[in-house]
Structures are given as structure tokens and as C-alpha cells.
Amino acid sequence: MNIEISTSIEGNSYGLINHPFSELFIVQKIESNLPCRIRFYLSELARENDLSRLATEQINGNHGCFFDIQVNGVRQLNPIPTIYLEDKTGYLAVENLSSEMREVNLKFTLSVIRL
Hints:
By secondary structure, the protein is mainly beta. The protein contains 1 helix and 7 strands, in the order βββαββββ. The chain has one helix spanning about 45-50; strands at about 1-10, 15-20, 25-40, 65-75, 80-85, 90-95, 100-110. Strands 1, 2, 3, 4, 5, 6 and 7 form a 7-stranded antiparallel sheet that branches. The longest helix has 7 residues, at about 45-50.
């Protein structure tokens, strides 16, 4: 299953995205059309509490962040995260790492697990 997301984001800035996903799935691969940092959260509150964390800072404790990665082109995830979303919504923070406003196109390749 593929999920595609497109949004315009200012250069060196974040876009906050709430997007429907399946309840339980494995993320195998993420593709992007330009360099970006992608963080995927359990909830809006988790995203809000973690948004100021720099990419160089370690994630500590029960933070609600499933992954925090940089992608430029295609990125296979290893280890492959298994994600459970009770409300079937993914809360993302996507940072455009280029210096100008651009359309960011993301493609998530997932394996859905049926409950």
C-alpha cells in the first residue's frame, strides 16, 4: 500500500501534517522529491512537545515519536517500524531542508496488518 502526501513548505521550515493511515502497519520505505526531515508521531500533543528538538538531539523517554529521519530520494527503513494508530491518523512534522519554498512530495510504502 502506498500513501502519497504533497504540501508546500517554506525553506528551512516545518509543515505540520495530519493524514489518515491504517490502524496497524509496517513502514518499509519513504520517498521524497527533495531533502527533508520527517518525524512521525502518535498524537498531536506528542508532536507539539517534541517539535523544538534538534535533529542532533537524542529522543529520550516516552516521547510518542515513531521515527525521525532525513530523506533525500528513497530511504529504506531499517529497523522497520511497526506503527499502531488507534485513531488511524498520522501526525507528521516535515522540514524542508532546502533554502526556498518548495512542494514536498512524500510517498510511504506500507504493509498493512489486519487486526
